[in-house]
Amino acid sequence: PPMSMFSKLVTRFKDLMVSEDGTIAGPPAAGEFVLGVNLGGEAVTIAGNVWQSYQAALTAGLMVPGAATTVTAMQPEPYASANIRRMLNSVIYKPETLEITQSLPNGTYDVYLWIMENFQTNWHSLTVNLNGQTVATAIGNLPLAHWQRYGPYTTTVTDASMDITISTGNPDIDAHIMGISIYQQKAEGKRQKAEGKRQKAKG
C-alpha cells in the first residue's frame, strides 16, 4: 500500500532510532555468513553483511532459469530497516515453480528465505525443496505487504551446488522470493578452512 505522509515520518523516525538491521529480522543467524543475494535488486548491507546484487550473483554462480524480476514500492510490515525494505521490494518470480541453483563449496549450510506478500493477502502458499528434500510447506502465506524471514533450513552440499525449488502448485500463481542468505555452521567452516590449508601445503 502507498505510504502516507504520517507513515513516512514514522518510518523515518524508526530508521533513525534502530541501528542494527539484524534486530529487525528475528534472532541473529548462527554460523558464518557465506552469501546473501538481493534477488532482482541491487547490492545491500544487512546486519553488517554485504549482499550481492542480482546481476552480480548471476555472474558468480547463481542460476535462475526463466525468472522475471520486478521492483515494488511497498511499506513492509512489520517495520523493516531501510536496507531490508530495499531488498523486500525487489523480487524474482516465475509461474508455479521457481528453480534456483547456487554454486557453493561442499559442506553444511543454513539457508534463510526472505519473502513479502506483494500481490494480495494470502495469495501465495509456497513449498520449498532444498537439495531434493522438502523443507517447508505453506510459507509466504501472509497479509498484503507483510514479510517474514523463513529458516534456517539446514542442508549439505555434496556436488558443489545447492538447488532450491519454490513452488505454488498452481500454474496461475507465481512462485516468488525476495532474498536469500546462507550461513555455514561454525564447525563446518573451521573444517573447510583447515582442509584448504592442507591443500595449499600439498601444492
Task: Name its key features.
single chain; 203 residues; alpha+beta
Describe the model.
Strand 2 and strand 3 (49-53) form a beta hairpin. The chain is globular and about 50 Å long. The protein has helices at residues 5-17, 54-58, 82-88, 186-202; strands spanning 32-38, 44-46, 49-53, 62-63, 68-71, 90-95, 97-103, 107-116, 126-130, 133-139, 147-157, 161-167, 174-177, 179-184. The mean pLDDT is 88. By secondary structure, it is an alpha+beta fold. The chain starts with a helix and ends with a helix. The strands form 3 sheets. It has a 6-stranded mixed sheet with strand order 2-3-1-14-8-11. The protein has a 5-stranded antiparallel sheet with strand order 4-7-12-9-10, with no helix packed on it. The protein is built from 4 helices and 14 strands. Helices cover 21% and strands 41% of the residues.
